[in-house]
């Protein structure tokens, strides 16, 4: 085989392609004559793996079918073989790459924040997986609190749950409390007053009235890597009396970004207030830049300051516009929606040494 490679390298480019095709055909015939099966992966490998250092127990399992002489190995981006690192990484003979829990000060970029590939060798064939990004997160304290906001009576309030920036990737809002009532994402009907938006995790309170002035609201987050839950301090809603002749105004960014997983239900927010209470219209921006009205359907329902989209897919990715208006003016907001279809693993193993009770995230 090495002689064939050396000979091939001395041939002109076009002839190389012809010769290579012949070699591949001969290899296939050799496999057939020896009753050998071309190897393949038994299951799809993820594009990324994320785990916490204090739970660890993350593993990549590479399995394939092909024959008893098949060799399964893990390699790094430069093609070198992955070796075991005591206490940090174990490369097992059965094709499993295991990452145990480790102390934060033992974090190593070449082990805990790097790219791996599985390589299967069998007879004439070498099969490589796609790149898999493995990243360990060293556990750090973080803060959760409700961001206070003012809302004018009769309008819609949007309460945000602030989470420290260094953990936002894996700490998500799991629910809200309004006094003793638990409010869950995905459990709110289009006509209800309280809606927990997905994927933003905001609490939307429609048609705010005097009774809301007396209620305390708090948010609950879950760490998807460790199962740790945190509840914010409860805050009172700050209500403003109606200001006459108030043009629509907003505290929302003029252009915001939202990312949702394929198949999820999504609520796009349009945080605009005014007096009289504004009317809302929703639009799509096409690839050519044209603006067209979003009609109500079984899957997509414009509902004043929220746009409900069920079972999102690639068709829903793109730019959405909401326009809020009354006789004193109008306000336009744009939302860029991205739909993710990546296969990713997040390892969550409850451990008794966690400081708070661990629960499995929904």
Task: Sum up the structure in keywords.
single chain; 362 residues; mainly beta; six-stranded mixed beta sheet; five-stranded antiparallel beta sheet; 32 strands; elongated
Helix tally equals 3
Mean pLDDT: 84
Secondary structural class: mainly beta
Oligomer: single chain
End-to-end Cα distance? 53 Å
Radius of gyration: 27 Å
Percentage of residues in DSSP E strands: 35-45%
Work out the helicity level. under 10%
- Envelope shape: elongated
* Largest sheet geometry: 6 strands, mixed
Please tally the β strands and state the result.
Answer: 32
Low-confidence stretches: 1-9, 348-362
What does this structure look like?
By secondary structure, this protein is mainly beta. Helices cover 9% and strands 43% of the residues. The protein has helices at 2-9, 13-33, 109-112, and strands at 40-41, 48-52, 58-61, 64-65, 71-76, 90-91, 96-99, 113-122, 125-128, 132-137, 144-147, 150-152, 157-163, 171-178, 181-183, 194-196, 203-205, 216-223, 229-231, 235-236, 238-240, 246-250, 255-261, 266-269, 272-275, 279-285, 291-293, 300-303, 306-309, 318-326, 329-340, 344-347. The strands form 9 sheets. Strands 2, 5, 8, 9, 10 and 32 form a 6-stranded mixed β-sheet that branches. Strands 14, 15, 18, 19 and 20 form a 5-stranded antiparallel β-sheet that branches. Strands 23-31-30-26-27 form a 5-stranded mixed β-sheet, with no helix packed on it. A hairpin with a 2-residue loop joins strand 14 (171-178) and strand 15. The longest helix has 21 residues, at 13-33. The radius of gyration is 27 Å and the shape is elongated. The two termini are 53 Å apart.
